[in-house]
Amino acid sequence: MNIEKLKSLANTDFTHFIQSENNVKYKIIIPFLQAFNHLELDLEHAAQGSRIDINIGNRIIVETKALGININNHVQQLSDYSGKELPVLAILTNGRHFRIYSPQWRHRRTFAEKVIYEFELKDLTDLQLLHRLEKIIGFCNYDNDEFFEHVEQREKEIMQVMKEIERIKSDKEIQVIELQNEINELKEKLLDISDQLKSKEQIVSDINDGKIPDIAIKKAETYFPINITFTSPISTNVPIVTKIPTIQTPKLSNDNIGATFKIENKNGSHALGKLLSNGNFIILKGSIVSLTTAPKFQTSSPSAFRKRTQFLKDGTIDANRQFTKDVEFNSKSGAASVVLGDSADGNKHWRPS
User: Fold this and answer.
1) What is the pLDDT of residues 216-246, one digit of tens each?
2) Which of 27, 182, 207, 235 is deepest in the core (most CB within 10 A)?
3) Domain 3-143 has CATH 3.40.50
């Protein structure tokens, strides 16, 4: 094998190269085959009414196309030639792109599937590729049984690689499913956090606007004069956070982990739940959700609204408003919101049982 000649071909300057089929054949393909010590080439070999560009002892045939031609359009032509001559190898090339077929490969059904090597002219600088090609193209093996053995070994190698690729694909499909589940869980947590932020921002806004239910009730109960104002107004000089801080996992008291909490209110809710060590919260089977939901439920706590709607559809919450199984939530607030049918602060509504 003439490595220097092959490397020189790899660096062919196509700037002023005549792109005709004959030029490709004589300037690239014949020198390529000669570099593997094939000196006796049967050019324009007659084959039952057709002519094969290059035939080497009926063991290797080569079909050459012009430089700019798409070789995909000529696979059938090479297949027809192979059916007539029954070669061990069939090469299809346009000078830049090379494709080597093993026409007698029994484990591949169509000719197009029988590719055993595919490379570019510029790849001939790769010594590993050259030594691989020498095993199946080199004249040193051409006239003995090693030629057939190397072709068969290459077929087996490709089959093994294809199995490994399928295994990798299968592993990656499983990984995608696992990652997608994790992504969905993270999105749910983000929605819960977003709902809590909106709820707390609304409380702050209401307080700043003077909409304080506790004060309104106190005034109503005591017939408080409406013209009297506060001498010490509630301070609103709380710095506004413009950047959401990194969310830290809350430290939980060991006394609370596994403890049972309950919600009971006048709207028919009667629920029991338990706090987990990871901060998640479980609503226990048999818990009863509220008879009605707040008008603003869908907008004030969209994540809880979607969950409650889905639970009613899939039977997690039955016709009697009861949970038919234990259900885990990302937070106490998310669980409380589903039970009460409104945006809710879990620490406020879940009381020790």
Assistant:
1) 787 777 777 776 665 555 555 555 554 545 5
2) 27
3) no
